[in-house]
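Q: For a teaching handout, I want to show students what a protein-ligand complex looks like in token form. Below are the inputs, and the small molecule is Z5A. Please produce the holo structure.
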Amino acid sequence: MNKGKFITFEGGEACGKTTQVNKLKEYIASLPNSDRFLLVREPGGTALGEELRRLILNYETDKPTAMAELMMFFASRCQLVEKVIKPALAEGKIVIADRFYDSTIAYQGEARGLMSAEEILSLTRLIIGDLKPDLTFYLKLSPEEAFKRKTNALPLDRIEKEGILFHQKVAKGYDYIANLESERFCVIDASKTPDEIFEVIKSKIEEMM
Ligand code: Z5A
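A: Here is the structure, written as tokens, with Z5A included.
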């Protein structure tokens, strides 16, 4: 049985996840029990996962089919869950993941139109068992607002290059799962300032601890 807690960050592109995860890193470093926390990201978080991340996001030579893309995300997740997340939770750690299966529901399920959220949840149970986040921060931002933030950004990866319609479907997928599993979701208006958003995140995490 898990002794730790599992927290995830979710949202469409440019919603401010990285900004908030960096703030959280700083906050955690200031805590006396900072070694109780473990931050991971998806895809990635293991040596194999980081290789898969590079292929998923930037491999343009032979673009993966939608199903091949889905399987690569699952391969990365499987490695991360079995080798890192489950052992850390068993030790009583608080694991914080930048993206998890809700991303697959939103991006591959809804936006690529591959399968329903329920089918992705079944596949998830088959591949990684019944591990489910205790708390999910969903940074909700309209794709229109997100696109405005992209103007001066770094070179875009394969998924970021998708158009507004794709990202509108991503948002629809997130809204669906946030409603379906509302007990674990903390939906945050990501158009607020980074400090306002972080206050909500910090107080929720303190409450949980
Ligand atoms: N993906 C998938 O398809 N299926 C899956 O199962 C999984 C992932 C797990 C990589 O994720 C891609 O993988 C992702 C989904 C897909 N592709 N997309 N799109 P990632 O998490 O590594 O990459 P990302 O989501 O694209 O992150 P990002 O582009 O780095 O955005 P972000 O982390 O959400 O935002 P940010 O870097 O913190 O901020 C973006 C800009 O907005 C930046 O200029 C900030 O200064 C600014 N910002 C941040 N917060 C604010 C606020 N509050 N107000 C105003 N401006 C702000």
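A: Two things your students might notice: The helical segments are 17-29, 47-58, 66-90, 101-111, 117-128, 143-149, 164-180, 194-208. The first strand starts at residue 5 and ends at 10.
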